[in-house]
Design brief:
The complex is a heterodimer of chains A (166) and B (159). The relative contact order of chain A is 0.18. Chain A contains six helices and six strands. Helix content of chain A is 31%, strand content 14%. The longest helix of chain A is centred in the C-terminal third of the chain and has 12 residues. By secondary structure, chain A is α/β, with parallel strands linked by helices. Chain A has one domain: Glycogen Phosphorylase B (Rossmann fold, 3-Layer(aba) Sandwich), CATH 3.40.50. In chain A, α1 links the parallel β1 and β2. Chain A has a six-stranded parallel sheet with strand order 3-2-1-4-5-6, with helices on one face. By secondary structure, chain B is an alpha/beta fold. Chain B has a single domain, classed as Rossmann fold (3-Layer(aba) Sandwich), CATH 3.40.50. Helices cover 29% and strands 21% of the residues of chain B. Chain B has five helices and seven strands, in the order βαββαβαβαβαβ. Chain B has a seven-stranded parallel sheet. In chain B, α2 crosses α3. Classes of the chains: A alpha/beta (166), B alpha/beta (159). At the A-B interface, α3, α4 and α6 of A face α1 and β5 of B.
């Protein structure tokens, strides 16, 4: 059987996110070769490697999209670019908002956006929370959508088009 | 023969760019992107200009102002659109000086107040249209319009 893919993305910004790296390194399945991991660290140093999988700093957007599509679970910082892709592919997501108190961003806007996401496939790990222990069986049971759903807000796009060209 | 008109889109890599792509999805003119990284290989933009990031050194804005002059000279944009981040500031200023239409959509990630670049663009009036993506933010300011978010945050999306 194919290994379930767990994708970890820390986005493209310039702040390190050591706390999220520690969370995944403490995850038993990170050291279990029945799972495939792909970890995109952005500004964080590439740390410990998983039992099976890759750790990279940055990848092109199209490659990220393909990884999101294939994944059984996405663990992500709470950025808008990440959020968009995960919603398009209806992924089960664990969001870890970056917070300023640990030097993970200049402010706490990721906490504010996390508070606004009312989506049953998305869970949020707040700074005071423990990171959940992942379940291998559940990962194997996740469905993979072959193509994205279109979540673009065309009403807003039409307004912008009118403002630019009307 | 006259060239297809260009709309210049200024957006930092990541979430700003994602929002810019959604928000310009019905524009028929040629879209040309200006960004701090070129991680894009899709078909949304005809071309990409890469400029320097300003996150850790604001002096770069001065350098980027000259890049903006060069890019305006090459592209002769009909209008300029931005979703931020701070790399948009010299382009907003130049658009004002050259009387080119500038439309700003403040980022979805700012739920309780405008982004820092949004605040500056608002304060100095460097826009023709200013939209934001949360009604509670729009209500704090006059002259800011709200038409929802660049994409649907709910469970379903359009099927």
């Amino acid at each position: 059987m194919a290994r379930p893919l767990i994708l970890v993305t820390m986005g493209t910004n310039d702040y390190p996110f050591t706390r999220l790296q520690q969370y995944i390194e403490q995850e038993p399945l990170y050291h279990d070769d029945r799972c495939e991991w792909f970890v995109q660290t952005g500004a964080s140093d590439v740390g410990m490697h998983p039992a099976y999988g890759e750790v990279v700093k940055l990848i092109p957007r199209a490659e990220m999209e393909n990884l999101v599509r294939r994944s059984a679970l996405v663990i992500s910082h709470c950025g808008i670019g990440s959020l968009n892709l995960m919603l398009q592919y209806k992924k089960k997501v664990i969001f870890v908002p970056r917070v300023s108190q640990y030097g993970e961003f200049s402010d706490d806007h990721q906490l504010q956006i996390a508070n606004e996401i009312g989506n049953r496939r998305i869970s949020v790990v707040y700074p005071e929370d423990d990171f959940p222990v992942l379940n291998y069986q559940e990962l194997c049971e996740q469905e993979v959508l072959p193509a994205p759903v279109d979540i673009t807000n065309y009403d807003l796009a039409r307004v912008i088009n009118f403002k630019l060209t009307g | 023969m006259a060239r297809n008109p260009v709309i210049l889109v200024i957006a930092s890599s990541g979430g700003h760019l994602t929002q810019a792509i959604c928000a310009t999805s019905t524009v028929e003119q040629q879209l040309v992107l200006v960004s701090n990284k070129n991680m894009l290989d899709g078909e949304h933009f005809a071309r990409v200009h890469t400029i320097r990031d300003t996150q850790h050194n604001p002096v770069i804005h001065l350098f980027n102002f000259f890049s903006a002059i060069r890019i305006f000279a090459v592209e002769k944009p009909q209008a300029v659109f931005s979703t931020g981040g701070p790399i948009c500031l010299p382009f907003a200023l130049l658009a004002k000086l050259l009387r080119t239409r500038f439309v700003f959509l403040d980022t979805m990630s700012r739920v309780t107040e405008l982004s820092n670049s949004g605040k500056l663009i608002k304060k100095f009036g460097l826009y023709d249209s200013f939209l934001c993506q949360w009604s509670s933010v729009a209500e704090q300011h006059s002259g800011i319009e709200y038409y929802g978010q660049a994409f649907d945050l709910g469970d379903n999306g359009h099927q």
